[in-house]
Amino acid sequence: MTRKVQCQALGEELDGLAFQPYPGDLGKRIFENISQQAWQKWLAHQTMLINENRLSPINPDHRKYLEGEMEKYFFGEGSEAPEGYVPPDE
């Protein structure tokens, strides 16, 4: 049976994550309060941030920036798209 969480990002009860997706306290908060659906949306947003800002996940400063954006995305005022970003036509 799938674990359910009251997703803080999407505001409804949804399937929870199968495992803690990020280390530390932030990862624990995400595991306990964020749904699979919201996590997938974050991964797409994170990919956009990495590509548009030309970030490297192995750079400690870039990782710190992404972690801050992750916390804002799930538990703060939200993570904004980079200035000048134009989403692709779908």
What does this structure look like?
The protein has 90 residues and is mainly alpha-helical. The chain contains 3 helices and 2 strands; from the N terminus they run E-E-H-H-H. It has helices at 24-33, 36-53, 60-75; strands at residues 4-6, 13-15. It has a two-stranded antiparallel ribbon with strand order 1-2. A hairpin with a 6-residue loop joins strand 1 and strand 2 (13-15). The chain is globular, with a radius of gyration of 14 Å. The mean pLDDT is 92.
Characteristic terms for this protein:
single chain, 3 helices
Summarize the topology.
Layout: E1 4-6, E2 13-15, H1 24-33, H2 36-53, H3 60-75
Antiparallel strand pairs: 1-2
Helix pairs in contact: 2-3
Report the CATH topology name: YggX-like
Total domains, how many? 1
| Level-1 CATH class name | Mainly Alpha
Biggest sheet architecture: 2 strands, antiparallel
> How much helical structure, as a percent, in the residues?
40-55%
Large-scale geometry? globular
* Number of helices, counting only DSSP H or I runs of 4 residues or more: 3
What's the pLDDT, averaged over the residues?
Answer: 92
Determine the oligomeric state from the structure: single chain
**H and E order:** EEHHH
Give me the CATH architecture, please. Answer: Orthogonal Bundle
The number of strands is 2
Summarize the structure.
With 90 residues, the chain is mainly α.
